[in-house]
Description:
The chain is mainly α. The chain has 16 helices and no strands.
Amino acid sequence: xxxxxxxxxxxxxxxxxxxxxxxxxxxxxxxxxxxxxxxxxxxxxxxxxxxxxxxxxxxxxxxxxxxxxxxxxxxxxxxxxxxxxxxxxxxxxxxxxxxxxxxxxxxxxxxxxxxxxxxxxxxxxxxxxxxxxxxxxxxxxxxxxxxxxxxxxxxxxxxxxxxxxxxxxxxxxxxxxxxxxxxxxxxxxxxxxxxxxxxxxxxxxxxxxxxxxxxxxxxxxxxxxxxxxxxxxxxxxxxxxxxxxxxxxxxxxxxxxxxxxxxxxxxxxxxxxxxxxxxxxxxxxxxxxxxxxxxxxxxxxxxxxxxxxxxxxxxxxxxxxxxxxxxxxxxxxxxxxxxxxxxxxxxxxxxxxxxxxxxxxxxxxxxxxxxxxxxxxxxxxxxxxxxxxxxxxxxxxxxxxxxxxxxxxxxxxxxxxxxxxxx
Length: 423
């Protein structure tokens, strides 16, 4: 099937629209949150505070990872999508009240952690359910469409948030505008919950097998099962680790871009200009994401899944190079495009590789391992970048380190003698 035929698939399309509406809403919410925390004139942003913001966003992804698989392997994933989106909408209304009153304390942090923790359950649920809606030959294309479409809708949601911000700015203060945007995002999640009701209760799994009651320790026991399952599929494990390293590098470069746009390319006293520049960089990255996903099925069909992933990791080495040649907005945009293009092509191919190795009984658990490893690498990438990066964002250290890690990953972790299909 081509992408258009997949989009018209009666069962797959219902799942995709739930995921994409949710991720468009993520764009609105994350944009409002980033503005409130990092781009408010009264809050001076530095590399460490930005890295801390990344860690807060991603912490729940790693902490609840062991339990996500337990939930998704035991309850209706369709019901999980309905309830989780509704709960997230309620959580955002509470966040909007705190933002409206200018609160930045522990209560805001906790509610944000809850919001992103719920988001992890939703994305994992759609990923685990997708292979039940599409046949194996079309899995790479379907996965590319789901992940890439989500990334595009995330960017579009961010753009919609910027448009709404201009409307709200005409009659409200900065913090009140952010609160209104978060309320709008809450309604977006509510819409995703309603759309999830179009799926049948058992349509996206889990399949019929023994449903055991979950306990506090069960999540960690079953993530160990997922890890052991991956030990028998070394190529999938290597792909997951390599994907984590690629995403960690991308986070480090994102931090560079944030500091450059916030404090160097524009007047720090006028953060709206920096926010617009960062949004444009994300839009350029979104174009790279789309192209990377589109070329993935073509490259896999021609060169094989493992060779394609290896090539994409080698090409990822080129992503940070423009920033080493010259520090400017043009080179930042070029770095964003190249790193996103090769990284996304690697990611969608690896997702399909992992999905193809796992039967449904273990799928939720293995994706829990996947999430913990990848998000741990992302947090690590942000923290390491913050320690090396000046508040201006200018410097050779982070781009050089990212390129070096990508090169070592391709040479060692994905080398031909080890990263290959099972005989």
